[in-house]
Write a structure and sequence with these properties.
It is built from ten helices and eight strands. Strand 2 and strand 3 form a beta hairpin. The protein is elongated and about 90 Å long. The two termini are 49 Å apart.
Length: 347
């Protein structure tokens, strides 16, 4: 019912916006005094830059719990359309109406920047405090982001971006320990699963594709060409940061919990008593339905399957939360991993 109501509201917005656009455009084209009627000019700009964006917020964005700031892009778009519709002699009025709105948007943006700087300061403070008792840099970043930003998408994205920068640029002098300080065993997943080979092959393909696309797109738009190249660079950086995280962050079996840190792709703490079944094989081939319900490694052939008794939330791609019914993993020694989990469950 709620979805149907939102669809009706969206249709009402489309009909009303279309009516305003057609009515105002017809008035500009049909009135003899349209070239000099300043009242008509202000009315068109008001309708396009203020009324239609407010209708969007009232009928669409507000129903989804969004703030009125979501209507700001419609204000800019409405001003552009008004400039196109109005005669050349009245186009100067567009700026007269829009500049106070632009000033308000700029003030809001400054306030948002100030808020972001405050949140960044909180994050740095939390990280410095967390680092005193958590020697693992990646885990310290994870805890600090959760404490500073809470359980939100912002926390997930900040944690992911900071982790990428750390593993890509500042982690190369660090060596992976076979066991934690408390003696808990570690299970690697990067040696026999050809993760580095996958990364090298994908990098090779992306580099050649980036050069070809850049030269091709540059003929039409240099800006678009550099945007595509920057996206390719980000993909390569993400790939190698994940490789480095995979080498430094093995899976650990701690007291009653699997501390699952699988590169930058899967982050979860799985209680042993929530596991319904765990098995190992030379390879698993989950179908499309299981890939939707289970977290999968994306790279490599999975050889461990963990099924949960009940759905659990984990951090997946970009560390965004996702609810899963289990995990498919590619572990270097799957038999030992499954055996140790079974032994820990019996204790």
């Amino acid at each position: 019912m709620a979805l149907a109501g939102r669809n009706r509201s969206a249709l009402w917005f489309i009909w009303l916006a279309a009516f305003i656009l057609l009515f105002d455009s017809a008035a500009v084209l049909s009135l003899p005094s349209a070239d000099t009627d300043r009242v008509l000019g202000y009315a068109v700009v008001f309708d396009f830059a203020i009324v239609i964006p407010l209708l969007y917020w009232l009928l669409v964005a507000r129903c989804k719990g969004k703030s009125v700031l979501k209507a700001a892009p419609f204000t800019i778009a409405g001003a552009v359309v008004a400039w196109l519709v109005l005669p050349a002699s009245l186009r100067g009025q567009v700026w007269d109406v829009v500049w106070p709105i632009e000033l308000l948007i700029a003030a809001v943006e400054i306030a948002l920047i100030g808020y972001e700087l405050r949140m960044l300061y909180r994050f740095v403070q939390r990280f410095r405090r967390t680092k005193r008792f958590e020697p693992d840099m990646g885990e310290a970043l994870r805890i600090a982001a959760k404490e500073a930003f809470g359980a939100s998408r912002i926390a997930s994205l900040v944690q992911h971006d900071v982790s990428v920068v750390y593993y890509l640029l500042f982690s190369w002098k660090r060596k992976r320990a076979a066991e934690a300080a408390d003696g808990t065993p570690a299970y690697s997943y990067h040696r026999k699963t050809s993760l580095t080979l996958y990364a090298g092959l994908i990098t090779h393909i992306v580099v050649f594709e980036a050069v070809f696309l850049h030269l091709l797109v540059q003929q039409w738009s240099p800006i678009a060409a550099w945007v595509l190249t920057a996206a390719d660079v980000w993909i390569v950086a993400l790939l190698w940061a994940d490789c480095r995280a995979s080498a430094l962050c093995p899976i650990r079996l701690t007291a009653g919990t699997i501390r699952l840190r699988y590169g930058l792709r899967i982050q979860a703490d799985v209680p042993l008593d929530s596991i319904a079944a765990v098995s190992a094989a030379l390879s698993f081939e989950p179908d499309a339905a299981e890939r939707k319900r289970f977290a999968t490694p994306l790279l490599g052939t999975p050889n461990v399957r963990i099924e949960l008794k009940r759905p659990q939330t984990m951090d997946g791609l970009l560390f965004l939360p996702r609810e899963v019914n289990g995990f498919y993993l590619a572990v270097d020694d799957p038999q030992a991993f499954v055996r140790d989990i079974a032994a820990a469950q019996r204790e």
